[in-house]
TrEMBL record:
<keyword id="KW-0658">Purine biosynthesis</keyword>
<keyword id="KW-0368">Histidine biosynthesis</keyword>
<keyword id="KW-0560">Oxidoreductase</keyword>
<comment type="function">
    <text>Catalyzes the oxidation of 5,10-methylenetetrahydrofolate to 5,10-methenyltetrahydrofolate and then the hydrolysis of 5,10-methenyltetrahydrofolate to 10-formyltetrahydrofolate.</text>
</comment>
<comment type="subunit">
    <text>Homodimer.</text>
</comment>
<keyword id="KW-0486">Methionine biosynthesis</keyword>
<dbReference type="GO" id="GO:0009086">
    <property type="term" value="P:methionine biosynthetic process"/>
</dbReference>
<feature type="binding site">
    <location>
        <position position="236"/>
    </location>
    <ligand>
        <name>NADP(+)</name>
    </ligand>
</feature>
<dbReference type="Pfam" id="PF02882">
    <property type="entry name" value="THF_DHG_CYH_C"/>
</dbReference>
<dbReference type="GO" id="GO:0004477">
    <property type="term" value="F:methenyltetrahydrofolate cyclohydrolase activity"/>
</dbReference>
<feature type="domain" description="Tetrahydrofolate dehydrogenase/cyclohydrolase NAD(P)-binding">
    <location>
        <begin position="143"/>
        <end position="292"/>
    </location>
</feature>
<keyword id="KW-0521">NADP</keyword>
<dbReference type="GO" id="GO:0004488">
    <property type="term" value="F:methylenetetrahydrofolate dehydrogenase (NADP+) activity"/>
</dbReference>
<dbReference type="InterPro" id="IPR020630">
    <property type="entry name" value="THF_DH/CycHdrlase_cat_dom"/>
</dbReference>
<dbReference type="InterPro" id="IPR020631">
    <property type="entry name" value="THF_DH/CycHdrlase_NAD-bd_dom"/>
</dbReference>
<feature type="binding site">
    <location>
        <begin position="170"/>
        <end position="172"/>
    </location>
    <ligand>
        <name>NADP(+)</name>
    </ligand>
</feature>
<keyword id="KW-0554">One-carbon metabolism</keyword>
């Protein structure tokens, strides 16, 4: 088997962002309104700071209004709920993202439920989860990571996944579960695996589409991959990189890339795969929200 095609998520995301930018320009020209995205971060987790900064940067690049709220790590839940309420009522804000995880004193479910569903561009509110659950992915805000992964899968295999077996490793509410729903909506036959699954390597070897969303560096080895499979690596793991020098780190996925690439037909790298697609989909969702608020037809991504 020859080396897999490397799926360039970074380039695909850049193309999406160009479209969002053009559509945002058209919306502003027609209505005088700009899409607005509010990103809220509680505490100083350095990894979260990096993501939040790149989300804010991308929003500006798209011509959006971009506001960032940084709250102290000790912020009481009620204060965060107040902020969400204010953002819900602010007509210049169309998307609200509260960065997860949140500190212990704050109930994340309660915060997510407080976000107006029509501004929930993360797709985490029960209303959007429910819409995805019943297969109404056109009305829902679909969570950005699975939505971005799905675009890469469609590029590789087409719109209709009939007859294909997809294995999703991971069952979180933000990645694994919605990923499985989207694959099902596209007619794939879907298996969801998790930490209690028996003989995970054998199960993975049955996958025509293998999605890894585990959070364990390079756990999925080359010989877990069915020859010719499409492999989507959602994992983002920072590991030590002594080869780069003392104290240096690098990012790796949940899949051992080099090994897996010897068997897969196509595979996403980390970095440069699903990560940039996530941010692009956040921009797309925010644009869609702004179009709906202005009573205009929203583009499809
Ligand atoms: N690229 C992107 O844009 C994004 C990347 N990520 C990355 O994706 C990964 C997953 O994120 P997230 O879903 O939030 O993580 P969670 O920790 O919420 O979920 C991890 C899932 O993996 C399962 N799991 C853990 N260990 C094993 C194992 N040994 N074998 C099989 N399954 C296992 C868990 O099973 P169980 O339920 O049984 O505990 C759980 O369902 C992380 O690396 C994260 O950084 C996340 C969001 C966005
Ligand atoms: N409410 C909420 N919504 C989220 O969508 C959300 C969240 N909380 N909490 C954390 C996770 C993680 N996440 C990533 C987004 C982009 C990259 C990304 O762009 N990664 C680059 C590399 C970035 C780097 O170099 O550090 C890449 O893979 O190429 C990664 C991870 C969104 N998340």
């Amino acid at each position: 088997m020859s080396e897999a095609k490397r799926i360039d998520g970074k380039a695909r995301a850049a193309g999406l962002v160009e479209r969002v930018k053009a559509e945002a320009g058209a919306l502003e020209a027609a209505t005088g309104r700009r899409p607005g995205l509010a990103v809220v971060i509680v505490g100083e987790d350095p990894a979260s700071q990096v993501y939040v900064a790149s989300k804010a940067r991308m929003a500006e690049e798209c011509g959006f209004k971009s506001v960032k709220h940084v709250l102290g790590a000790e912020t009481p839940e009620a204060e965060l709920l107040d902020l969400v309420e204010r953002l819900n009522g602010d007509p210049t804000i169309h998307g609200i993202l509260v960065q997860l995880p949140l500190p212990r004193q704050i109930d994340a479910n309660k915060v997510i439920r407080a976000i107006a569903p029509e501004k929930d561009v993360d797709g985490f509110h029960l209303t959007n989860v429910g819409l995805v659950g019943i297969g109404d992915v056109a009305t829902a805000f679909v969570p950005c990571t699975p939505a971005g992964a799905m675009i890469l899968i469609r590029d590789a295999l087409g719109e209709d996944l009939s007859g294909r077996h997809a294995v999703v490793v991971g069952r979180s509410n933000i990645v694994g579960k919605p990923m499985a729903q989207l694959l099902l909506a596209a007619n794939a036959t879907v298996t969801i695996a998790h930490s209690r699954t028996a003989d995970l390597p054998a199960l993975c070897r049955m996958a025509d589409i293998l999605v890894a969303a585990v959070g364990r560096p390079e756990m999925i080895r080359g010989d877990w991959v069915k020859p010719g499979a499409v492999v989507i690596d959602v994992g983002i793991n920072r590991v030590e990189a002594p080869e780069k020098g003392e104290g240096r780190t690098r990012l790796v996925g949940d899949v051992a890339y080099a090994e897996a690439a010897e068997r897969a037909a196509a595979i996403t790298p980390v970095p440069g795969g699903v990560g940039p697609m996530t941010i692009a989909m956040l921009m797309a969702n925010t644009l869609v929200s702004a179009c709906r608020a202005a009573g205009r037809a929203a583009p499809k991504f």
